[in-house]
Input
Amino acid sequence: MSEIQSTSSPSETPAPPASSGGRIVIFGLNLSLGALIAWIAVLALLTLVAFGLLRRQQGPVAAGQTAPEFTLTTFEGEQFRLSDLKGKVVLINFWASWCKPCEEEAADLEAAWRDYQPRGDVVFLGVDYVDTEPEAKAYLKKFDITYPNGPDLRTRASQAFRIRGVPETYIVAPDGKLASVQIGPFTSLAQIKAMIDPLLEP
Amino acid sequence: MRESRLFWLAIPIALIFGYFFVGRTYAQESTPYTPTDDEVNAVAKGLYCPVCENIPLDVCPTQACSQWRALIREKIGLGWSEQQIKDYFVAQYGDRVLAAPPARGLNWLVYLIPPVAIATGIYILVRAIRTWRHPISAGVAKERSPEAGNDEYVDRLEEELRQR
Output
């Protein structure tokens, strides 16, 4: 074997730089630029999925939280914006003509509305969820419902309240916070009044 | 004389035209077009009712979906195209009713991720196959540090090893 003289020893070898030759050292990992971009993309995607799952797990908005803002355009074309109703008690009822449990509470809701309407400080809003207009109007006529009702256009209101089904009813206090939530139908007029009366000034 | 002949000829022609036009109008008014179930389902299979998640509208048995199919039938009867009907449903109930989300905003991810994932997978597979086919040369190349790239000592050492 021929004699070979080494020009450098391992002890003299300098430490590799943090970034060289298109490679980046991050958290002790020596990654190429492509691999780093791929990891960032995967992490961003996982974060998006996590947020989506968290949102789905949240359930409906709860009492004590600020009521989500929404606008309802009634079947007659009148507009109601929730923030414009601050200072009043607002009952928001999600319903549909195809929903049998909604029929159970329809008469009680209308009776409650007729009780409170002369006061002027209580507003009832019916939000018609995933329904067809002729059937919805027939339902309103059948139960002689006179408080404002309108379709949940693009399901914006139901998504804002994160409803799980119908009927669901949300009662908003005069300060704009949710006072109570009723999942499923009301069983009596007294039950509706028990939720609204404590929010009213004597 | 000639004018009077033309006049008498024009009367039966006008009567024939009148019969066809008026008759057809009456026919349309008396028997409105009723779309078939197949026509309704062709549109419905591209829509999903938010109440019954993951069940296409054409096979969904709920009352809500039945009402939606009736609405589709009515719109087809009025001469609406499939796209017009879908646009109407989106305006009423939101993008979530569509089987395929519209390509905008975050929805782009749905269209971009699968091809990107497949392309990345193919790239990784090709690299892995190349490494498996040339394991020794690839191994030697990997073992050499960047600092040893122009080292005469290493080059000569490798040359001698190859000759043995």
Remarks:
- The two ends of chain A are 108 Å apart (CA to CA).
- The beta strands of chain A are 19-20, 23-26, 29-32, 71-73, 79-81, 89-95, 122-128, 149-151, 168-172, 178-183.
- The CA atoms of residues 39 and 45 of chain A lie 10 Å apart.
